[in-house]
Design goal:
Elements (H helix, E strand, L loop, with lengths): L2 H15 L14 H11 L14 H6 L3 H9 L18 H15 L3 H8 L3 H14 L7 H10 L11 E3 L7 E3 L17
Antiparallel strand pairs: 1-2
Helix pairs in contact: 1-5, 7-8
Length: 193
C-alpha cells in the first residue's frame, strides 16, 4: 500500500477514536501528545513507562513525555525521529499512530479499540487487518519492519469507486461501467394499415 493511502487509513482510525479535533485533515496536523494521553485513559491502559537506566536514555533526556517513554519502552527498536526541540518529528506521526494501533489491537488486545476498528468502513477495516497480519508475529518492530509490512499490505478501495472494466474486444482499453451502457435503439417507422 502506498504511503498516502495508509495515512488516510490511520487518519480514519484516529478520527474514529475521537481524541483529535474534528477539523484535522492530515495526521501531521493532529496533536499526537494529547491523543496519546486520551488513548491511554480511554481503555485504562496502565504502562510502566519509567525509562531510567534505559539504553535509550540519551533520547529520554531530550524529551520525557509519556509518548516518547512509551515508544522507548514498548517499541525500543523503532527509533523515533525527534526534531531539534526534542519533540517527535511530524514525519513520524503516521508510524507512531500505527504503533499505537498495533499496541491496542494486537499487544493488549483491547476490546474497546477493536470495537472502534469494527465501526470503520469495511475497506478501512480490511486494510488494517491486512497490515496487522503482516506484523503480528514480529519479535522486533522496527522502522524497516513497518515499511515492509506497509509495502505488502493490500489496498482496499472504497465501495463507491466504480471498478475499471476491460472490454472483451479491446483488451488494452479500460473503461468504466458507465461507458459500456449500450446506446438507445434506433427508432423505426411503423407501417400504417
Amino acid at each position: 500500500m502506498d504511503l498516502r493511502s495508509w495515512k488516510s487509513v490511520i487518519l480514519a482510525w484516529v478520527q474514529k477514536c475521537g481524541f483529535v479535533d474534528e477539523n484535522v485533515l492530515t495526521i501531521e496536523q493532529s496533536n499526537i501528545y494529547k491523543f496519546f494521553e486520551r488513548y491511554l485513559e480511554y481503555d485504562n491502559m496502565h504502562l510502566s513507562l519509567d525509562t531510567t537506566g534505559s539504553e535509550h536514555s540519551d533520547l529520554s533526556s531530550r524529551n520525557d513525555t509519556p509518548l516518547i517513554k512509551f515508544l522507548q519502552t514498548v517499541y525500543p527498536d523503532f527509533g523515533a525521529n525527534l526534531d531539534t526541540s526534542g519533540n517527535l518529528d511530524r514525519s513520524d506521526y503516521y508510524l507512531v499512530y500505527t504503533l499505537m494501533l498495533h499496541y491496542a489491537c494486537v499487544t493488549t488486545k483491547s476490546t474497546q479499540y477493536q470495537l472502534k476498528c469494527t465501526e470503520l468502513p469495511e475497506h478501512i477495516q480490511k486494510a488494517i487487518a491486512s497490515f496487522l497480519s503482516r506484523i503480528v508475529n514480529s519479535q522486533k518492530i522496527t522502522r524497516l519492519c513497518l515499511g515492509e509490512a506497509l509495502e505488502t499490505t493490500k489496498k482496499f478501495f472504497e465501495p463507491a469507486t466504480p471498478p475499471a472494466m476491460v472490454l472483451p474486444d479491446t483488451p488494452s482499453t479500460v473503461q468504466t461501467e458507465a461507458a459500456i451502457i449500450p446506446p438507445p435503439p434506433t427508432p423505426r417507422l411503423l407501417a400504417h394499415p
